[in-house]
Amino acid sequence: MPVSFMDWLRYFAAALLPAAAIAYLCGCFNGAVIVSKYILRDDVRSHGSGNAGLTNFYRTFGGFLTLMVILTDVLKAVAALLLAGMLVGGTFGQYWAGLFCLLGHMFPCMFRFKGGKGILSGGAIAIMIDWRIALVVWGGFLLLTVLTRYVSLGSLWAGGSFPFITWYCFPSPGIVALAFVIGGLIVWQHRANVRRLLKGTERKFSLHKKRE
User: What is the distance between the alpha carbons of residues 170 and 175, in angstroms, rounded to a whole number?
Assistant: First the structure.
């Protein structure tokens, strides 16, 4: 790792900045928007919650194309960590790439910066980083979603638990700081869901698609 200020500047210019750009652009390939806008010719963001995520896509359109959304959002996370992670290296590189991939997913420049909430891509990132992190994040997500039928509640667990299980697995200040930013972004993206949960107006998930 760099030791002097000039070394850090060179490292930032040669590795961190290009890795961030690659990961962000990978994240911009939002599956829900691409499938709905260019295949179904009906932008998912004009329906339901207005979110460009898997849940809103399934509630609005359902069907086999939901698998294409899943595949797109998972593969872009894999590509981001493999390509950008190679430039930075190590676990820090995975978290760095993961952060900017999620920023691309949430705020895609090619879709007017209106994207999804990062759960599916974030879950793929967790799996690639460490099985223990994936177990805590996905285990809690699935358990809460199945028991309550609130996808948002499981998502809040995923975002909230991510930095703490990271702290346990990789107690490095830089990695933990990135994990808190990633988890904080996911929780922040669900702020409207939190308000609806508190009011009792949050919709429960159903396997039966209901068109808005």
Answer: 7
Which of 206, 160, 208 shows the shortest CA–CA distance to 182?
160
CA dist., res. 134 & res. 128, Å (int): 8
C-beta separation of 17 from 76 below 8 A: no
DSSP state of 192: H
Which distant-in-sequence residues (6+ apart) come within 8 Å of 115 by Cβ?
28, 30, 33, 52, 104, 105, 106, 107, 108
The pLDDT tens digits of the residues spanning 28-71 come to 999 889 999 899 988 888 888 788 888 888 888 888 889 999 99
Q: 124: which 2 tokens? A: 């793929």
Is the entire prediction scored with pTM above 0.85?
yes
Task: Give 8-15 contacts, CB < 8 A, sequence gap 24+.
Answer: 15/87, 15/88, 15/89
